[in-house]
Write a structure and sequence with these properties.
The protein has 457 residues and is of the alpha+beta class. It contains 15 helices and 12 strands. Strands 2, 6, 7, 8, 9 and 10 form a 6-stranded antiparallel sheet that branches. Bound molecules: adenosine monophosphate and magnesium ion.
Length: 457
Amino acid sequence: MLDFASLGADFFAEITTQPLENTFLIHKNQALKSQLQLDLDDKSLLKIAAGEQKFAGTQPLASIYAGHQFGHFVPQLGDGRCCLIGQAQGQELSLKGAGQTPFSRGADGRAVLRSSIREYLCSAAMNGLGIATTQALSLVGSSTQVYREQIETGAIVLRTAPSHIRFGHFELFAARGQVAQIKQLADFIIKNYYPDCQGKNRYVDFLNEVTKRTALMISHWQAQGFTHGVMNTDNMSILALTLDYGPFGFMETYNPGLVCNHSDHEGRYAFDQQPGVALWNLARLADSLASLIDAKQAKSVLEKYQNYLVKYYSKLMRQKFGLMEKSDDDNLLIGDFLQLLLQHKKDYSNSLRQLSEPEKLDSNADFATWLKRYQSRLEQEKNANRITLMKQINPKFILRNYLAETAIRKAENDKNYAEIGVLFDLLSSPFDEHLGFENYTFEPPDWAKNLQLSCSS
Ligand code: AMP
Ligand code: MG
């Protein structure tokens, strides 16, 4: 039974999944499977994960939502290729790529292997980094041909999250003037996912909590160099989970203006725009809650976003630099280091990881001067575990584009899926040393320097 189904027919359409041909299980997340207490062997898991069999007799459904895409309001979107198939241990199970729904808007309802591998691996990477995200339980391949810029094959990711509700769900009902449904949806979310917001000012408290959690998620993205790529309001989770992996990217060479979505010509969703975009998106959510929250109150909640963001982001950055004691010049010290990375085209994650082994840092005079300042600042630090703690927040392994691309090419060209398992293990515990896998920390080889990602998936 899906809790979401209790909302009733205004919120979704019941659907029938359309299985792919010759499906096979490429990989599964064993830890997640145990956590969900799914007592299924691989054969039974495949049937469910491929949409060939219902999960515990549950009727699959596609939910309806709207959204602002690249700044423009689209009055009706919805799960065009996703569907909820069930619930286990309080987590919704959702299939991505299991066929058309009433909300497919003429598209095929499919997801290709390439983008499914990327989503599968990035969910594991984000979870490994401790960033709130939907998770991926399994990756299923098939022989079904799917047409994008070229012929590819269809795949299905089984995603899990406590809820897949987006800001866009509220926007749909707001645009239609359906205030009863807005209230119903807000009450449902508060009761199930924000139980601490059930007091007198429940809707204001709820907006405040979403704002706070969104600021926390964005702070993690910024601290770990993650660019989402398509921060449309229909991709913003009401639980502030990283949701809908498309043309995302981890920053390699430090570049705050990084745009990882080749189709984003204006750089609307560039790395350094993300904090501002999230606030803009929260304002669209607040707009759609206008029937429940007084405009002045909504405004004062949104005004807190900046404070939350600065608080969380500085805390994470201080941890990354191992600066536990407070000192006035810390922001300058951190800012100057980032400036050096920019100037000398250095790898963001590797450089930060090297802070715990400064002898590995660039020996260039600029870095040497900075390092002297840093080392004298470190004399104020008292925690004997500083280096260990720094290594627990500066990852050794990130999902570099060329690593994903290598796994994709092996899968597509040679039907060799082993690389996916290797990356899954490294990315699931990205702070561990994984001795012998140093080559997975290398900066991109020449062939991968200009890899381009589009929305096509
Ligand atoms: P996305 O860019 O993946 O977040 O998708 C935006 C909207 O388009 C959502 O409503 C998706 O469900 C829908 N969509 C994307 N790709 C497909 C597809 N191949 N078939 C049907 N709907 C799709
Ligand atoms: Mg989406």
